[in-house]
Design goal:
With 281 residues, the protein is α+β, with helices and mostly antiparallel strands. It contains 5 helices and 18 strands. The chain has helices at residues 21-32, 83-96, 148-152, 179-189, 245-255; strands spanning 10-17, 35-39, 43-47, 53-58, 72-79, 101-104, 108-114, 120-126, 134-135, 138-139, 168-175, 193-198, 202-206, 214-217, 233-240, 260-263, 266-270, 276-280. The chain has an 8-stranded mixed β-sheet with strand order 2-3-4-1-15-18-17-16, covered by helices on one side. It has an 8-stranded mixed β-sheet with strand order 6-7-8-5-11-14-13-12. Strands 9-10 form a two-stranded antiparallel sheet. The longest helix has 14 residues, at 83-96. The two termini are 19 Å apart.
Amino acid sequence: MNFHQKPITFVSNITIKVENIDRSIAFYKNIVGFNVLKRTETSAELTADGITGILTVEQPEAVLPKQGRTTGLYHFAILLPSRKDLANFVYHTVDVGLELGASDHLVSEALYFSDPDGNGIEVYQDRDPSTWTWNGDHVNMAVDPLDFEDLLQEGERGAWQGLPKQTVMGHIHLHVADIPTTKHFYEKGLGFETVSQFGNQALFISKGKYHHHIGLNTWNGVGALPPAENSAGLKHFTLTYADHAVEDVVKQLRAIGAIVEQKDGKASTVDPSGNIIILSY
């Protein structure tokens, strides 16, 4: 099953704010492997396949450095099509001197690093969904050490040629102010289902039995406040729904008292922690 296409609801684009647009474009092209789809003086839409923009970087006026201990972006996650691609990317990171964190999550193998502004990035590949273990509606995930020796046997030094065309935005992970109100908003308002939860510290939600399209945590502190509007970090992210399902989602959001703005045929909402979400189809 493809967990990142309609009719499943998925994260289709992330828009982040950066301090220096030229520096960021160079990083995302040379280190991560994106191509530039569109460019202005202060923004760039980045693509893997040359057609679809999955990451947008913008330099706001009077931009401030990314603020700590706030709500907003923990990381966005770029999903590679194969384990071989992930191994080739590891060889590439060695060649360019990029420091990595890494985890085996049982459902996936993941690498972690940050861009020059401190925006968190995950690059990962999914294990075959037939190997995921479900206990009812909850999927087993872990934070185990990644077996680099085994992974690197899949790849080849020098084989990395940038992000493969089949690369998609796999998920987003957010800092939020608390779990109970967040859970209510994303389930009752946006229509997601909880597939894993770690007390009142972290929540993982998805559609279509994916291991998670959105992660949510309170690791920056319960009651954390949103960052300044012109701070580097998350600007907004886009959820793509099945055709015309947005109309029902807007009704659900208003029924729980959420803010919904509709303008020029587009809808947007704000979660209880100030994270802005664009609703698309």
